[in-house]
Records
---
Amino acid sequence: MITLFNRKELLITYDMSTLAKVRTILESNNIEHKVRTTNTLSPSSFNSHTKTRGVPYGLDHSKTHEYKIYVKVSEYEKVFYLINKNN
């Protein structure tokens, strides 16, 4: 099980196809992973300029969701090698 104390951030991406490609590699090698998705447009107490009135004009829609992939610290090097080998 991946917890806050035994995980390491493998990748941050805004591209869903990159996310799918990496997850396919992880799943085909039976590597446990966790994905955290953040909507960059959602209002937050840390981001006071963000409004809930829709998408601002001129915003790059490809950057509205951030995906972070975490793996166990003990498997990080193996996973890093697998991903770089397949690119």
---
Amino acid sequence: MEQDISIYMKNVSLSYEKAILTNINLEIKKGEFVYLIGKTGAGKSTLLRAIYADIPIESGEGEVCGFNLKNINKRNIPLLRRKLGIVFQDMQLLNDRNVFNNLAFVLRATGNKDKNLIRTRVMESLELVGLQDKADAFPYNLSEGEMQRIVLARAMVNKPELIIADEPTGNLDPITSEEIVKLLLKLNKENQTTILMATHDYLIISDFRNRVISCENGKIIE
């Protein structure tokens, strides 16, 4: 696979729960911003799960950030995920620890033990989303918009090559949704971070135009 490709799939088949995708051919270059659309249950989350190696590809060829998805072993999955930032639909913040330690947890989980590096990375990420003053706050004391920005900061803390965002604006009001997308666009432009964003928000797609791929009838369509 070429060096400048973040996601590559050729004739890939996937299934998870009731969603089945077949004959996926997809190429996303480093530094691209791509929207992933499709009805609920069409397979968007299935595709994203395959990209971060949560489910296996059943046939075909797949590579993400230099890792072969077909024969990746469990030991290498954390190494792949160091190159990824994942923004989950349901946020998945840990309520038993403050914002700083939510972000630090990601760094420790991927093998970082240097306390100074952890502190620097966490504060840099919080500054990028404008919430450096919330480091000591607990998630349950934040607004939904603030929590989503913290989730975005957590996704960025490892300085990933690729950010996978699963419906990051799904539960937000239009103004906060726009702020989140602007942050993703800024990250994409300034850091050349590849962004793959699953969304139902066609207003966002219309206002901030980029490449769109769609899950339809078990296929991925440009």
---
Amino acid sequence: MQLSLLFARWEPAFWIPTLTAAVIAYFCGCFNGAVIVSKYILRDDVRTHGSGNAGLTNFFRTFGGPLTLVVILLDVVKAVVAVLAGSALFRCFIPNDPAVLVLAKYWTGLFCLLGHMFPCMFHFKGGKGILSGGTIAIMIDWRLALLVWGGFLILTALTRYVSLGSVYAAAFFPVGTWLFVSHDPCILILSFILGGLILWKHRGNIQRLLRGEESKLTFHHKKEADTK
């Protein structure tokens, strides 16, 4: 089925799961691991340190320790739950259509990312979306995940700039979608929005990279800096 026709017709069988999945995915995304662990377990909000960003890298640089694994787990699980819940909803209303299932993953992935970046329960101040976005890529297609995660890990390991790996992953997300997932215009538009959101959240990192002022990843505790 051509997905643009679904949007054009906008029938209840389509808009009910579409809107419901968007709401569920957004609120899943709002459960920001770095904020929850730092604010409610450590009693020291990560957003008051370093870059002020509520992401994994700032948490690791500020607090370090095994609780970083808890942050990773929370941000991975929420993306998995969002995509699975959205896919299940779409299957109930529009069964036996692989193209619609792909749409469900991108659609719920987008709203999960929006919840992560702009969580209503944390004053719309969230993270930059790399870990959640990378999990969404895994849920969509292993080849897409290999492209974005492979480049991210290689660039980060070679340069120690997490932000450079993040920018690569965001930029190549729509490329991987076109290569491995779908040529459907709706899917491609969603992939560009997903990648574009992550790039936009990293705009400060990009400027610092261009000026040679970006902080490199270290494994020392309490270093004030930035990225996801």
---
Amino acid sequence: MRLDLRALIRQSDGSIPFSFSMDLSELDFFGSHPITHPVQVSGTVSNRAGALVLQGEAVTTLELQCDRCLRAFSQEMRVPVDTLLAETLEDEENDEIVLLEDGAVDLDEVFTTAVVLAMDVKHVCSEDCKGLCARCGANLNDGPCQCRPEMDPRFAALAQLLDKESDD
């Protein structure tokens, strides 16, 4: 969505609200497509004493797979955006300012970039997720597995002695 700001540039202390929906279901994150629901975007562009300020938020629900236990789960994602807009830049190193093209800003590009940058690399269904057993693959969130505790190899001889005593 392109938002024309030419009228706002000439009007001090004005603002233009916006609200729209984006489809980012085609975005690939390490082989998965977690953004299956539409991304709802809303906010305003304000002229504050000649400076254009874009403030908004992108909200969606992600469909993820836990990296510890492999269960599917849903998680809400809220991405706030607060940036300056300008027609030209005086120094090229200020990458926090979004440039206008012919007096308009491409809100799709601004919010898509913000969502991609806010995406976590690891996804966990809960902070206390116990994951899977390294030997049998059982989900430890459902209860303990039937594997015997792994013995430290330094105590193997001692374990053999204990096994012999229990047989007697």
